[in-house]
Amino acid sequence: MDAVDLVLRKFDGRPHRQVTARRLGEDAYGTWLATPRGTTVSYHYGTRPTGKTKVDAVRLVTAGKWWMAMFLAEPADRELYCDVITPARWTGPAEITVVDLDIDLVRYRADGRVEVEDEDEFAEHRVELGYPPEVVDGALGGAAELRDALLRDEEPFASHYRSWLARV
């Protein structure tokens, strides 16, 4: 299993977050990356320090979609955490780069509720960073697509991810 750097940037090119994951494989949904408990995540924003992941997780990086998903093992309260992004690009033989577009969707393990977070940050950065119309449309469309899939419990969000998570 090869190491892959997952690099998240902001629209203006600033570094946002980075994690080195293990590439588990690919399927019809995209590329699956493992971040075992204790994996280092580097944060380049705010006051949040670089830290270690608290639970095993798999990340699904989709081809051509405006989102990526992270599926978290128990005992995490969140079952999954999704970032709305520009479509992922391989920027090196072992590097995937995305632009984080602020909107996040979370599904909670205990009750299955889905919450959309940071829409205010998206609205602010839309103006401040000058998101062009196609980026705004892609982000809003991706968030809506993702929300609907999560609420309907469609794959890969229903159970498909569990086989990948078991490999971590």
TrEMBL record:
The keyword Repeat does not apply. Keywords: Hydrolase. Residues 12-153 form the DUF402 domain. Pfam families: DUF402. It comes from the Bacteria. The keyword Transport does not apply. PANTHER family: PTHR39159, UPF0374 PROTEIN YGAC. This is DUF402 domain-containing protein.
